[in-house]
Amino acid sequence: MEGTVQDVVIVGAGIAGLTTSLGLYRQGVPSLVLESSDTLRITGYALTIWTNAWRALDAVGIGESLRQQHEYIYGNVTTSLITGRQTSDTSFKAEAKFANHEIRCVKRKLMLEALAKELPSGTIRYSSKVVSIEESGFLKLVHLADGTILKTKVLIGCDGVNSVVGMWLGFKKPAFTGRSAIRGCSESKACHEFEPKFMQFFGNGIRSGAIPCDDKAVYWFFTWTPTSQEKEQEGQSI
Ligand SMILES: Cc1cc2nc3c(=O)[nH]c(=O)nc-3n(C[C@H](O)[C@H](O)[C@H](O)COP(=O)(O)OP(=O)(O)OC[C@H]3O[C@@H](n4cnc5c(N)ncnc54)[C@H](O)[C@@H]3O)c2cc1C
């Protein structure tokens, strides 16, 4: 493989890398996806997928199978953590103002597996950590941690927040937003009996929420953004 020139190399087999590769494949363009991990990184919990992302999943041909495994969320309810009162209740049902929205909470593992399953075998090359990139005429030379050098006409960076491709392109280092988060998914044997609604709670720098994926799984999260005063106190206590 080292001597041959690839048409398209994508760095990162996350959601972005696999979707890009599948989109290209559907258009008849093969690609090679380089992933640093030795298997598909299916850990994590779930993501709330909105209308535009469903269009993208339909375009690459995995929308229908994911719809069958995740329930349609027909409402968004927000509650203040300060007053305890409900602050909004938006319906996405057919007759409602926001009826054209499609929202489902998709398990990350199922989405990654659905994307990977549709790709021709050999598309994803695991244990292939990109460490540097060089330009050689019209080609890019992609250096891997194991010493392999791959040549490609097109290089696409989908390697997440500390992207090697991004750094090579001169992008700034990622900035810390100050927000911390804890996420999880509860899976029960019996039906959880939550309505298919996105429940969100806001106040005092906290945003938390829960949203059913299907009738047995509920994805939940807590995020916290400290005020500038709290940040200062935190800095003093270190
Ligand atoms: C393991 C994991 C679990 C997650 N769980 C959740 C969740 O439960 N809920 C949620 O909302 N979001 C979650 N996220 C975040 C969310 O999936 C991503 O932030 C978002 O989808 C962006 O996807 P991405 O494909 O751009 O980047 P990423 O998902 O970060 O994927 C980048 C991929 O590139 C690979 N990579 C990085 N550097 C290199 C390199 N130098 N060479 C080769 N490969 C490289 C990484 O191993 C990774 O597989 C998770 C992300 C990860 C990686």
Automatic annotation (TrEMBL):
Domain FAD-binding residues, every copy: 7-233
SUPFAM superfamilies xref list: FAD/NAD(P)-binding domain
InterPro entries (UniProt xref): FAD-bd, FAD/NAD-bd_sf, MOase
Pfam families: FAD_binding_3
GO MF annotations, alphabetized: FAD binding; monooxygenase activity
Coiled coil spans: none
Keywords, comma-separated and alphabetical: Monooxygenase, Oxidoreductase
Keyword Plastid among record annotations: no
Family named by the database record: Belongs to the 3-hydroxybenzoate 6-hydroxylase family.
Protein name per the record: FAD-dependent urate hydroxylase-like protein
Origin organism lineage: Eukaryota, Viridiplantae, Streptophyta, Embryophyta, Tracheophyta
